[in-house]
Design goal:
Two copies of one chain form a homodimer.
Chain A: H1 2-8, H2 12-20, H3 29-42, H4 48-55, E1 60-65, H5 72-87, E2 91-96, H6 101-113, E3 118-129, E4 140-147, E5 154-157, H7 159-172, E6 178-183, H8 188-203, E7 213-216, H9 220-233, E8 237-240, H10 243-255, E9 265-267, H11 273-276, E10 285-286, H12 290-301, E11 313-315, E12 319-320
Parallel strand pairs in A: 1-2, 1-3, 3-4, 4-5, 5-11, 6-7, 6-8, 8-9
Antiparallel strand pairs in A: 10-12
Helix pairs in contact in A: 1-2, 1-3, 2-3, 5-12, 7-8, 9-10
Chain B binds a DNA duplex (16 and 16 nucleotides) through helix 2 and helix 4.
DNA sequence: TTGAAAGCGCTAACAC
DNA sequence: GTGTTAGCGCTTTCAA
């Protein structure tokens, strides 16, 4: 910067003003031009770190995730957060903790040392968490997870609306006897999707039939194993807890010579691309809005959007219609 | 830091020395203890940015990716890079460019302004790239891609070895007539895996039979469509260009009433978890080492490991045996 | 064994 | 309009 000033024959203050296009700074056309030329000539690049130090406020946002890689989903959260942060001139600092508390504290400490504007704490599946102590030392928003007592702003998928939507799609295709293969794992997804399923049935004037909900491991194996129970139930459509379960069910159904959707309709959840878009027939499902979760997290953190006064911010799970209904 | 010094009754220089555990610094036990107490009392945290400014050397590594989210794979690269960077006291700055050149330049500029130690430029599938001009302004290593003329250090999966390994596994199960469903997309994967397939056959004394390699779209649909050709070929085993192709082939085979692996063995490539580990039977495949790619990229960047004098650094694709052979 | 002081690159009052 | 200068929080000679 000094060099630029020297070449342009001005002071560093002037350089700073033109480089940052300062609002209230009156700079002569000539001086401005000379500075710009010098910048170009020298290939000058401002030092963002020095700027931060001097202004006392950084453009970093930290993202600490419990599992960047285990699932395709985490990547989408990063992606959404990154895009949104970028849009507002912020930069993402990422750290993976593998769910390990020590790594977590270290990661948070490191972000604090780098003067992050705030931290996004994310998990790869929607759940309640214990808030790490260290998070209280800066602004934090929880992404795809939430804390008891709503002590921190959080943004999570609207599981209930998702379950409702999924069921409604089946209802819209005139199904009345709709089975639901739910996960055996206690989670907001388990209760939320079930509540949505019941709400949709109720709204359609269909009585909830407990014997139509089947517990299963939330994977291909679970869906496959549920096949005969589904068949016995005489359901004409089945809403699966997730796409993987639906994939397993496809296999089971096929073995019994059943056609989808002619003989039985199938609805998934998650919109896991590698699966849903490529099963035969392609799978209708409800999308988990991971990208939006990341983006909304950043917006809350930057105060661009107000957090709901009570409870986490809910992001809608939109239906993705393909050919299994 | 000044506050700590004041409370401990020493100078900031002394605080700096004890906080950083400086080697050649003689600090009295008493002073050291007082500083440590003051640090604890104040909850003092060093400002990493100020440190960088003063030392002139940062602990940032930039990762620019063309697609963080499109695929589960990109996440693994980030994960590997992050873990390795972390291990050496570095922090990852990530940017997504969606393959857009403008975003790319902006991302690189931003990283440069943040004084990154170097940049990891990664793509989500192995290919040759045009090196963005801006990358030459700092140390760069290419991850999962490479540049013509080997102008930049690069680290990529060893496609040929992967193809060889896959074929060898089939050979080891006593198959002699092995079909290969290759992608129609020109790429290092296309040529490398084919070369590996041929090499393995040659080593086993089996003549290469052109009519045993089938072109197909690298997705479920391609594998499914190739079914009848595979059946006509009388092959007893098939090596699929990737797991998605294998998944499609599973469907096709099942429709023809064939059992895997009793009637025909199937080998995949990629080790895409959501698929490979959960097909029935589970799919034997070869893993694309994305995590390792990211980690090795960081090692090359930090000079912890020498780059090969010619060509990219090859990372092995290990076999993952399950139940389809 | 410890401290004073210069300087890292930049911003922001304020003076001219 | 433009320049001077005092920091921002830290490291690092060098002197004491």
């Amino acid at each position: 910067m000094r060099d630029v000033a020297k070449i342009a024959g001005v002071s560093v203050a002037t350089v700073s003003h033109v480089v940052n296009d300062k609002a209230g700074a009156r700079i002569g056309d000539d001086a401005r031009r000379r500075v710009q030329e010098a910048v170009a000539e020298l290939g000058y690049r401002p030092n963002a770190l020095a700027k931060t130090l001097s202004q006392g406020t950084s453009r970093f946002i930290g993202l600490v995730a419990d599992a960047i890689a285990t699932t395709p989903f985490a990547g989408q959260i990063i992606h959404g957060a990154q895009d949104e942060a970028w849009k507002h001139g912020y930069v993402l600092l990422v750290a993976n903790t593998d769910g390990n508390a020590a790594a977590e504290n270290e990661a948070i400490a490191m972000m604090l040392e780098h003067q992050v504007h705030g931290i996004l704490y994310s998990t790869w599946y929607h759940r309640e968490i214990q808030v790490p102590e260290a998070l209280h030392q800066t602004d934090t928003v929880l992404v795809d997870c939430f804390a008891a007592g709503n002590v921190l702003p959080a943004v999570v998928p609207d599981e209930e609306q998702g379950g409702r939507t999924a069921t409604e799609e089946l209802l819209a295709a005139s199904h009345r006897r709709i089975a639901f293969i739910n996960t055996t794992t206690p989670s907001p997804a388990q209760t939320g999707r079930l509540a949505g399923y019941r709400a949709a049935l109720a709204a359609a004037g269909i009585e909830f039939d407990e014997s139509l909900v089947f517990p299963a491991a939330p994977e291909q194996e679970g869906g496959y194993a549920a096949t005969s129970a589904i068949l016995d139930s005489k359901a004409t459509a089945v809403f699966c807890h997730n796409d993987r379960v639906a994939m397993g069910l496809y296999d089971g159904l096929r073995e019994h010579g059943l056609r989808i959707p002619e003989d039985i309709a199938v609805m998934g959840f998650d919109n896991q691309d590698v699966i849903a878009a490529h099963l035969r027939p392609t799978l209708s499902t409800v999308a988990l809005p991971h990208y939006e979760l990341g983006a909304a997290g950043v917006r809350l953190l930057l105060g661009l959007e107000p957090a709901p006064e009570s409870g986490p911010k809910l992001i809608a799970c939109p239906p993705v219609l393909r050919h299994s209904i």
